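Pair request: fold both.
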Amino acid sequence: QVQLVESGGGLVQPGGSLRLSCAASASIFSIDFMGWYRQAPGKQRELVAAITSGDSTNYADSVKGRFTISSDNAKSTVTLQMNSLKPEDTAVYYCYVGVVEGWGYWGQGTQVTVSS
C-alpha cells in the first residue's frame, strides 16, 4: 500500500514563506498529475496547485504569483513553495497523486497557519 507523507507545515507570520514536500513510500507508476489541495475550517477542500506528468501547471487564482509547484515523477515527490503567505492561506494542506487509470492517493494532511 503506497502512502504519501507530507512535511513542512507549521506556523508562519503574514508575508512569510513555507515549503511543503510530499513523498511516496514506494514508486508510483503511470502518474497523470500531482497536486496540492487545502481545506480550511468550515470550507470545502479546494485545489491549490497541480502539475501534470508533462510539467504543465495550474494554480488557484488566489495563489497565482505566490505559490510554485514542482515535482519529480521518477521519485514520486511533489513540492509546494509558498511565499507571501496570508492569513487566508491557513488550512490543512493535502498532497494528491493521480494516476492515468483514474484513481489516486492522498496524503494525511499538514497544517499551515498564517498568523501574527
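--- second member of the pair ---
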Amino acid sequence: QVQLVESGGGLVQAGGSLRLSCAASTRTFERYSMGWFRQAPGKERELVASIPRIGRTYYNDAVKGRFTISRDNGKNTVYLQMNSLEPEDTAVYYCAAAAPGASWNAWGQGTQVTVSS
C-alpha cells in the first residue's frame, strides 16, 4: 500500500500563505487520484481539494480561489498552495490517495496548520 508523508504545515498570520507537500512511496503514483483533507477540532474531516489521474480538479467551496492543488508525477508529490489564509483554515491537513476505482484508502500522518488572527 502506498505510504504518504506530508510536510509544510506551521503557524501563519491571517492573509499569509503556506505550501503543503505530500510525498508518496509508490512506483505507480501517476495512477492515483490524490487529495487533501482537513479536520478542525470538534469537526468532521472534510475534503479540501483533489486532483485525479486525469480530469478536473475539485475544490471545496470554502477554499475556491485561495487554494491550488497540483501534482508532480516525476517527483511522486502532490502540493497544496494555500493563499489568503483565514483563521477558519486552522486544522490538521491530511494527504490521501485513491487507486483507480477505489475510495480514499491511503492516508498521511497529518500536518498542523494554524492561522492566527
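Observation on the second member. The radius of gyration is 13 Å.
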